Amino acid sequence: MTNDDPISRSIAIDGPTASGKSVVGRALAERLRLGFFDTGMMYRACTLAVLRAAVDPNTESAVTELVRALDLDVRWPDPTDPRIVIANVDVTADLRTLEIEEHVSLVSRIEDVRHELVRRQRAIATREPVVMVGRDIGTRVLPEARTKVFLDASTETRARRRYGDERERGLSTTFEEVLEATRRRDELDNTGHRALRREQAAEGALIIDTDDVDADGVVERCVEAYLASNAPR
Ligand code: DC
User: Fold this and answer.
1) Is the overall model pTM greater than 0.85, yes or no?
2) What DSSP assignment string belongs to 115-172?
3) Which of 44, 67, 74, 108 best tests ligand 1's pocket when mutated (most atoms within 8 Å of CB)?
4) Is residue 1 part of a domain?
């Protein structure tokens, strides 16, 4: 591959749950006129398919078989609003349920599932440069990306953000419940090649502490990093 292929020009964003990856990633894509893709949606879509097929998410071989055969597609009616399609049906609106939240870590920790989804995610960035967010984008999916970012924030800050989102969606959870759920999610996601803590960030990643910076400020820093790493030489 040349140094100017779509993967090199893509932006890889990693970080733990509720670190602001999607908000920042989408805004960044809009700003730079790139496509946006949140890889968590793929793990969620596989979990949806597993639950619908009544496959036990703990049975690795059955889950892997289902995922490999899954007719899963990603479409971009708008470059920053990817839609997940299973067997020609748009399931994007069904991916943020409590049931999926509770099971997605079981599916995403299976190495064969990750292998399959990494392959599909990488294929997306071979067509045109994208802003891709997840837990292993800089380390595994797009290691050649010139711009790699790791978003970090304390557990409390992340829980506060999630709590705000949930209140907006009309859910009546308490802050303590959300804080506990955030800790549990970190623990469950902490397997395999995933980057959840700054020490696990991809080599050369720009680490941004988002505790005291708003989303606009984080986007600004990412734009600077992108322009610096893609400046004509
Ligand atoms: O970011 P999210 O909450 O939508 O992620 C859903 C799940 O998928 C979560 O368990 C982490 C996992 N995930 C992953 O393992 N690797 C990725 N690149 C993206 C998400």
Assistant:
1) yes
2) HHHHHHHHHHHHHS-EEEEESSIIIII-TT-SEEEEEE--HHHHHHHHHHHHHHTT--
3) 108
4) no
